[in-house]
Amino acid sequence: GAVVSQHPSWVICKSGTSVKIECRSLDFQATTMFWYRQFPKQSLMLMATSNEGSKATYEQGVEKDKFLINHASLTLSTLTVTSAHPEDSSFYICSAREAGLDQPQHFGDGTRLSIL
Amino acid sequence: GENVEQHPSTLSVQEGDSAVIKCTYSDSASNYFPWYKQELGKGPQLIIDIRSNVGEKKDQRIAVTLNKTAKHFSLHITETQPEDSAVYFCAALAYSGAGSYQLTFGKGTKLSVIP
Predict the structure, then answer these.
(1) Is B46 on the interface with A (CB under 8 A)?
(2) Backbone angles phi, psi at A86, to 5 degrees
């Protein structure tokens, strides 16, 4: 089955640090990738959608200068949390989908980000 | 935009019993409805999905039913096992503007299977 690999799985860093999270589709070409944020015991909140080679589309309320998304290839997308602060601590999950609306969306195992 | 309601928020069943989780959606144009299972500390895993041209789909102990007229769909798990314990999310795919389609998720159901 389709596999989405996300790294790192857990990051602890000091306030003010920038953190990069990688998301790779291992056995399919991800035309579209999504980044979600999930708070404890809550549902997934879409942050942004990116198509390969294009700028990401951010959801309302998500700061594009804070959360930099790059989708330079059909198998890799990165999310960089710039100058992270404690309020950015959360569980970040990427998702990927092949071209075509009839293709399912697969998720990575998430990255737990803790900012001290 | 699309709105997905999911019930119940928590569900406890005895091992071997069946579990049913129900979702409703608001956008009649939605035509793809996946279900995800999320275990603690992991990402959601797609377990089954259904498209609007069918009313029911089954995969071993898991089945999903769809009623497009009433705009609701349900997940049925039979012969539950302790390893079925997790949080389950329903979702609906809808047009979100600018040529994009995105999933809208329910708030999740925490299923506990008691041995």
Answers:
(1) yes
(2) -50, -35
Q: What does the alpha-carbon distance between residue B51 and residue A24 come to, in Å, rounded to a whole number?
A: 27
User: Rounded to 10 degrees, what is the CA torsion of B99, B49, B4, B66?
Assistant: 110
Distance of alpha carbon A50 from alpha carbon B106, whole angstroms: 22
**The predicted structure's pLDDT at residue B50:** 95
Other C-beta atoms within 10 Å of A6: how many?
Answer: 22
pLDDT, tens digit (0-9, with 9 covering 90-100), for A38-86:
999 999 999 999 988 888 999 999 999 999 999 989 999 999 999 999 9
Distance CA A20, CA A6 (A): 11
A85-115 residue pLDDT tens: 999 999 999 999 998 777 899 999 999 999 9
The reply to whether residue B108 touches residue A43, judged by beta carbons under 8 angstroms, is yes
Please name the residue that has the structure tokens 């990401």.
A56
pLDDT digits (tens, 9 = 90+) for B82-109: 999 999 999 999 888 777 788 999 999 9
Structure tokens that stand for A29 in this block: 């070409």
Secondary element (H or E) of residue B98: none
Which of A26, A36, A44, A46 to substitute to test the interface with B, most B CBs within 10 Å? Answer: A44
Spatial distance between the Cα atoms of A35 and A23, rounded to a whole number of angstroms:
9
Burial label, B115 (beta-carbon count in 10 A; 0-12, 13-18, 19+): exposed
